[in-house]
Amino acid sequence: MIQIRNATADDADAIRAIYNDAVANTTAVFDYEPRSAEAQLAWLAMKAEQKLPVLVAEQDGAVLGYASYGQFRPWPAFQYTVENAIYIAPNRRGQGIGRLLLGELIAVAQARGLRSMVAGITAENTASLALHEKLGFERTGLIRDSGWKFERWLDLVFLQRMLQA
Questions:
Q1: What number is the average pLDDT over the span 143-148?
Q2: CA distances from 69 to 25, 48, 120, 136, 154 (A)
Q3: Residue 114: helix, strand or coil by DSSP?
Q4: Which residue, among 84, 48, 92, 80, has the nearest Cα to 67 in the 3D structure?
Q5: H helices of the chain, where?
Q6: Quick one: average pLDDT of 106-134?
Q7: What does the alpha-carbon distance between residue 53 and residue 67 come to, in Å, rounded to a whole number?
Q8: Any idea what DSSP says for residue 46?
């Protein structure tokens, strides 16, 4: 059985491995450099300090994926809009883990009274686009050639889900 729970510092290595695979092998993130162990712990500490959720999907002691959100933009007027991030272990993609994580992340955001959640997804990442749309996100914009990775330009699709009625 897959359990969704809050991440701890003990999950840092597993989260880092999942993130670094996405950096090295996918266009899901526009980062070029793998994250160090120290940087991963600092990221988790920053999320905890800012009271931002980091959720992990775990089964039989193994972290299968993680999800989090952060403020969409750094100005006070954006405090009720967050941007999500979801990463799944390469051998567990396409098995419904992203749906479990995103569903719980939405529930956390709603419970905290947030107004909307956005996602910025590479246009070629059809699985992530479909996942978000299944969970009520609507496409709100496209930024063409916004990122350069793997020797090509990438389009970025923005989606949004309203969280409060």
A1: 98
A2: 22, 12, 12, 17, 22
A3: coil
A4: 84
A5: 12-25, 37-49, 97-111, 126-134
A6: 98
A7: 8
A8: H
SS3 content of the chain, % helix, strand, coil (to 5): 35, 35, 30
The dihedral of CA 154, 22, 125, 109: what is its sign? negative
Tell me whether strands 81-88 and 116-122 are parallel, antiparallel or unpaired: parallel
Which amino acid is residue 103, in one-letter code?
G
On average, the pLDDT of the chain sits at 97
Q: Which two tokens stand for residue 75?
A: 């100005």
Site of tokens 């931002």: 52
The length of the chain, given as a count of residues: 165
Q: How far apart are CA 141 and CA 109, in angstroms?
A: 22
- Quick: pLDDT tens for 66-96: 999 999 999 999 999 999 999 999 999 999 9
Q: Which residue carries 């020797």 as its tokens? A: 151
**Domains, the chain, ordered by start:** 3-162 (3.40.630.30)
Burial 64-87 (b: 16+ CB within 10 A, else e): bbbbbbebbeeeeeeeebbbbbbb
Judge whether 158 and 142 are in contact, CB under 8 Å.
yes
CA distance 14 to 18: 6
